[in-house]
Each structure stands twice: as structure tokens, then as C-alpha cells.
């Protein structure tokens, strides 16, 4: 891994175009999760009944405005889906017609207890319960912030984040073996190198385009991670410097695969297959995922002297994601 001084870079903010993602609405009709809509397009005007919410508005009528709030706040598609699913479960428990102003602390506590103990023989995972508490706090804080309710029934809930099991990271020898094995295919080599040496997430890798790679100075190649302005993720945009050898790796990949626009024009499943072949060639027996490569990068950064704040900038993590990741990486880098 390269020292921190080799990876210092300044963030930039350039918009990219992404296709909207359509999925089934948990409340009945298809919706489009427009995280990646073009900022030049005017946002649709909400119907009258969606913008005039009061404490007498039913829980069901808050669902669509809440979905839009999550998207405007830059929440991932996964978070939007999970929180809407939690909202539907809350509606099933309290009733769709209950006014949000009548929901008290005892209601949300009863719902959590029902989820945790109401199904004999099935105990939800601690992480799942923690996420549902996060949903309650997020949903009712939004209602309170918009002055729709006077008292937040989730304010007193305690969020106990369970510590996930620590991943079995790649050793330095395994990292080198994987890099050597990936050289058999230019696409695989580029993919593995980008994550092991820049710490990119899978979705960031899939969003890369050729113009995000700056090879003006071949000795200091740069990769820019960018989001559409409409996603409200500008604070996570960043530029990352890579070792000089990436210039040769990327140019070889461009020539071999005739890459002119999207760098990895395939599905996330294809990326997993590409990695799996290299892992098999390297004869690594661990379960190796793209996330494990990112974790390996993060821990090596801390061991090389990068501060926790510096690591967060390199990884581009949000406040919520950093709360969970910070302790994990600290424990991995400096076990007691």
C-alpha cells in the first residue's frame, strides 16, 4: 500500500448522467428511485395533499412525501427501500389511518417489542433491530423538523449498534498474489487495482467513466468519484491519487477492451465473477469480495499512519456509515 502522502488529492464536483432505477412501490404503485436524475430537469411539483401535511395526516399519506425526503437527502436506494419497508410494517401494526400526531412513545416501543418478541422461535438479528430504530428516529425527526408533529415519539429511543464480526482481511502476501493473478486479464487487473489501491466501493466502480480518469501526469494518475448534483452527495465527492503503474494498467485495459465511455459496462454480478476467477487463480481460500478489498485498503491506510478523519475522506463515507465503519477499521488495524 502507498503512503498517505501519495494519496492526497482534492475533491471535485462534476455531474454524471445515470439512468433512474425503477422498483415496485411497497404501497401499491411503481415508483422511480431518481437518485441519479439530471439536475437540469425540474423537480416535479408535489400534489397539494402531499405538501400540506399536518399532525392529523394519516401515516399512510406520509409515505410518499417521506420517500421523496429520503431521496433528496441523498439516501441510497438500499436505505430508501429498507426504510419504506419498515414504514409499511409500522402501518400494519398501528393502522394506516392513524394520524401521525397521535403516535406516542408507547406506540413505537410496543411495535419494537412486537418485532423482537412477538414471533416465537424467530428473533430478528440485532443489526435489523438497530436499523428499525434508525428508521423510527429518521422518520419522526423529519416530521418534527417540518413542524408536522410537536413531540417526537422516537426521541427517547436508544440506538445500540451491534458490533459486526470482523472480516478476515487479506494478508500482504495474499494481496500480492491476487494482484499477480489478476494480471492475466486486463479488465480484472484494473478492477482489483482500483479497489486495493484506491478503496472504491462497488457502486463507485460501476459509475466510473473514462473522463473520470486523469492521466495528464502519468506519474500521478488520478481517479475522480462524482455524483449527480440531485443526489445531495457532493460532500462525498473526491479525487484519489494512484501509484504511477496504474497509468499502464488502465491504458492496457482500454486497448484490450476498447473502453471509450463507461469503464466497467457490466452488472455487479459480472464484477463478482471477474474477481472470483482471480481469487481462484491466486489459490486464496478466504471468501474474497469487493468489499473485503476495500476493507483491506482502509486498514492498510490506518497502519500507514493516515488519521481516522483522513481515512473517512478517502472512503467518502456519510455520517451514518462512518459511525459503524470507524470502530471496525480501528479494531482491525490496531487489535488489542
From TrEMBL:
GO terms for molecular function: DNA binding. One of its GO terms (biological process) is DNA recombination. Keywords: DNA integration, DNA recombination, DNA-binding. Residues 57-144 form the Core-binding (CB) domain. SUPFAM superfamilies: DNA breaking-rejoining enzymes. Residues 165-336 form the Tyr recombinase domain. InterPro entries: CB, DNA_brk_join_enz, Integrase-like_cat_sf, Integrase_catalytic, Integrase_recombinase_N, Integrase_SAM-like_N, Tyrosine_recombinase_XerCD. Pfam families: Phage_int_SAM_1 (PF02899), Phage_integrase (PF00589). Residues 1-20 are annotated as: Disordered. The keyword rRNA-binding does not apply. Belongs to the 'phage' integrase family. This is Tyrosine recombinase XerC. It comes from Dictyobacter arantiisoli. The lineage of its organism: Bacteria, Bacillati, Chloroflexota, Ktedonobacteria, Ktedonobacterales.
Amino acid at each position: 500500500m502507498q503512503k498517505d502522502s501519495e494519496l492526497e488529492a482534492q475533491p471535485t464536483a462534476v455531474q454524471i448522467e445515470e439512468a433512474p432505477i425503477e422498483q415496485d412501490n411497497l404501497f401499491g404503485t411503481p415508483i422511480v428511485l431518481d437518485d441519479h436524475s439530471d439536475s437540469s430537469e425540474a423537480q416535479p411539483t408535489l400534489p397539494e395533499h402531499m405538501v400540506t401535511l399536518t399532525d392529523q395526516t394519516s401515516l399512510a399519506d406520509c409515505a410518499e412525501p417521506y420517500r421523496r425526503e429520503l431521496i433528496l437527502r441523498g439516501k441510497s436506494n438500499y436505505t430508501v427501500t429498507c426504510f419504506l419497508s419498515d414504514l409499511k410494517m409500522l402501518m400494519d401494526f398501528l393502522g394506516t389511518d392513524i394520524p401521525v400526531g397521535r403516535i406516542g412513545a408507547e406506540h413505537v416501543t410496543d411495535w419494537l417489542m412486537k418485532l423482537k418478541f412477538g414471533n416465537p422461535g424467530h428473533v430478528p438479528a440485532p443489526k435489523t433491530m438497530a436499523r428499525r430504530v434508525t428508521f423510527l428516529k429518521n422518520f419522526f425527526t423529519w416530521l418534527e423538523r417540518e413542524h408536522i408533529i410537536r413531540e417526537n415519539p422516537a426521541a427517547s429511543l436508544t440506538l445500540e449498534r451491534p458490533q459486526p464480526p470482523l472480516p478476515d482481511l487479506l494478508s500482504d502476501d495474499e494481496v500480492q498474489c491476487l494482484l499477480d493473478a489478476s494480471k492475466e486479464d486486463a479488465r480484472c487487473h484494473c478492477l482489483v487495482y482500483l479497489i486495493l489501491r484506491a478503496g472504491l466501493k462497488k457502486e463507485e466502480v460501476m459509475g466510473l467513466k473514462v473522463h473520470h480518469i486523469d492521466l495528464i501526469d502519468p506519474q500521478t494518475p488520478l481517479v475522480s468519484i462524482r455524483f449527480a448534483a440531485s443526489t445531495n452527495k457532493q460532500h462525498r465527492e473526491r479525487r484519489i491519487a494512484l501509484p504511477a503503474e496504474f497509468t499502464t494498467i488502465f491504458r492496457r485495459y482500454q486497448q484490450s477492451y476498447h473502453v471509450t465511455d463507461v469503464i466497467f459496462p457490466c452488472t455487479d454480478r459480472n464484477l463478482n465473477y471477474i474477481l472470483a476467477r482471480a481469487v481462484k487463480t491466486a489459490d486464496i481460500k478466504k471468501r474474497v469480495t469487493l468489499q473485503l478489498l476495500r476493507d483491506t485498503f482502509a486498514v492498510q491506510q490506518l497502519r500507514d499512519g493516515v488519521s481516522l478523519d483522513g481515512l473517512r475522506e478517502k472512503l467518502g463515507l456519510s455520517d451514518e456509515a462512518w459511525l459503524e465503519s470507524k470502530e471496525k477499521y480501528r479494531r482491525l488495524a490496531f487489535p488489542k
